[in-house]
Write a structure and sequence with these properties.
Number of domains: 2
Shape: rod-shaped
Number of helices: 4
Number of strands: 3
Oligomer: single chain
Radius of gyration: 23 Å
Order of helices and strands: EHHEEHH
Strand order of the largest sheet: 1-2-3
Length: about 90
Amino acid sequence: MLLLTVTEFRNNISRYLKMALTERIALKSKDGVIELTPSKEIRVNPSPSNDQYFDNPHNIKETDKAMQELEDYHAGKVSAISLDELKSQLAL
């Protein structure tokens, strides 16, 4: 792990960001230590109360899928079926 001051990081930011993809880089400031963590995606918790349920990427995908289905329904892209039709389709 490489421990840097914020000033050193700022002076060579491009170099250290590239390094952070292959090794652990941490920044030491007066308020504590911050470790850089590479990721291929940005995860933002959409909950106003920062509910931990939304920290799980799977839960976010399921929520997004349900919202898209709801939007499709309201846009008329999906039609409603009766409970009997659903049971018939599911062979219940």
